[in-house]
Design goal:
The structure holds two protein chains of two kinds.
Chain A lengths: L2 H18 L12 H8 L5 H20 L5 H6 L9
Chain B lengths: L12 E6 L9 E4 L2 E13 L19 E14 L5 H7 L2 E7 L4 E7 L8 E7 L6 E17 L4 E14 L5 E3 L7 E12 L6 E2 L6 E7 L23 E10 L2 H9 L13 E13 L6 E15 L13 E8 L7 E6 L5
Parallel strand pairs in B: 2-10
Antiparallel strand pairs in B: 1-2, 1-7, 3-4, 4-9, 5-6, 6-18, 7-8, 8-9, 8-13, 11-12, 11-15, 13-14, 14-17, 15-16, 16-17, 16-18
Chain lengths: 85, 345
């Protein structure tokens, strides 16, 4: 996948969840740049890695804003898969 | 609030977490077993102008100096163990790609672009008589990492600068470091060569120490108008070099260093290149696996600079030489492989 493809995928899949934590899904260091960079290191597995990285971003952003996460969103963003972090 | 604290340092901890985005603090941290740690504020202080007419022509400081900003300033020293070192390397700009080997994981780190250089959150817990307080540094990057390998231990020191210092918030999670150390007497130097092109000598002599230095200077003076605080810490460059010490001065080493090849007979000023691949292991295997924890650094192209005067005959001492090997930044200059039981970073 290209960087632009991955950004489009994240926008489509996680755009609403990102908006809930005040993030505009753009390819900048303040938003998705590192999620995209990390996902692109996983050839053939970019979407799964993007899901995981965006899930962590939403979790961290939620904690920073001190807002109540929506349980169904956490599940859908794969946040349960952070036990090894 | 306590007026004094008699809690000692052994109750402190230092941890690091990788941020998903700049400005968003990490909530998952890796703790280290540190020997030294700190996280505080380094203020920018503007000198007073000497203006006239002055309130006093005697006193240099007739007014208060102005604080114009600050940086987070942190340092940590720790023995090389298999988990914490990965996010430390990420703080120095390395990107990690993790592979599942079923019973253990291999994390391969290579230097990323400036744009991919992660921001980190540091956590420092300070013991106090009425309970510890935890501070965090947000939007931090590492300026340097040194890995000092002696015959006794492998000690690492990392220094950081950051944009924000504040109390810890929320309920962060911490992953404890493994107690297993990477030991200097277990492992291998898979490759260690030196010589001018076409005459490379495989260094087989005993070596008693090596320091791996990673310099990652940050632009700490980048302030701008209408910005009351710094907004970025760009990387200025990245450099890796080795400093080998206590190398037996054989005829082969002497000839490779000074004549450029084993068996050489005249001093050559041609560049001495080489390939350095070193690794260290833990004493015990990773739980559930049949391999130990492992740290490997591979640098396919180095330039050797022998340290003039380092090999001396003195009393009954061995004659030992020192030399630097500077990593040359082409292709993939540095690859670090770490085997541990962490699924992903």
């Amino acid at each position: 996948m290209t960087r632009d493809d991955l950004l489009d995928y994240i926008k489509t899949t996680h755009g609403d969840a990102l908006a809930q934590v005040g993030l505009t899904p753009v390819d900048t260091p303040e938003s998705l740049s590192y999620s995209i960079s990390d996902a692109l290191l996983r050839a053939g597995d970019e979407k799964a890695e993007a899901d995981r990285r965006v899930g962590i971003l939403i979790r961290d952003r939620t904690a920073m804003l001190d807002i109540e996460p929506e349980p169904e969103n956490i599940q859908s963003e794969g946040i349960t898969d952070v036990s090894n972090l | 609030m306590s007026a004094t604290s008699e809690a000692n340092s052994l109750e402190a901890f230092f941890a690091i977490g990788v941020q998903s985005a700049k400005g968003t603090a990490a909530t998952a941290f890796y703790k280290t077993l540190a020997t030294v740690s700190s996280l505080d504020v380094q203020f920018d202080i503007r000198d007073n102008r000497l203006e006239h007419p002055a309130a006093s022509s005697v006193w240099l400081r007739a007014g208060y100096q102005t604080m114009t900003g600050y940086l987070a300033n942190a340092t940590v020293t720790f023995a090389l163990r298999p988990k914490f070192i990965v996010p430390i390397l990420q703080a120095v700009g390395y990107q990690v790609n993790s592979v599942n080997n079923t019973t253990y994981y291999t994390h391969t780190l290579t230097q990323g672009t400036n744009a991919a250089h992660k921001w980190m959150t540091l956590a420092w817990s300070v013991p106090d008589s009425d309970g510890a307080f935890v501070v965090r540094g947000v939007d931090c990057r590492a300026e340097s990492l040194s890995i000092d390998v002696t015959t006794e231990e492998i000690l690492c020191t990392a220094t950081f600068k950051g944009l924000t210092v504040e109390p810890m918030a929320g309920s962060p999670t911490y992953t404890a470091e493994a107690t297993d150390e990477l030991l200097p007497w277990i492992g291998a130097r898979t490759t260690l060569s030196c010589g001018i092109s076409g005459s490379t000598y495989a260094v087989v002599e005993r070596i008693r120490g090596v320091t791996i230095n990673m310099d990652n200077p940050l632009r700490v003076d980048d302030k701008a108008l209408w910005e009351p605080a710094r907004t970025t810490l760009q990387r200025e460059s990245h450099d890796v070099n080795y400093n080998f010490t206590g190398m037996n001065m054989s005829d082969s080493v002497y000839e490779a260093f000074f004549y450029g090849s084993d068996g050489g007979t005249t001093v050559s000023t041609a560049v001495r290149t080489g390939d350095v691949n070193l690794e260290w292991h833990s004493a015990d295997d990773i739980t559930g696996a049949v391999v130990p924890f492992r740290f490997e650094i591979d640098t396919p192209t180095v330039q050797w600079i022998p340290e003039s005067g380092s090999g001396q005959a003195s009393g009954s001492d061995l004659i030992l030489a020192s030399a630097a090997a500077n990593v040359i930044g082409t292709g993939t200059p540095v690859t670090i492989n770490i085997d541990n039981d962490v699924a992903s970073y």
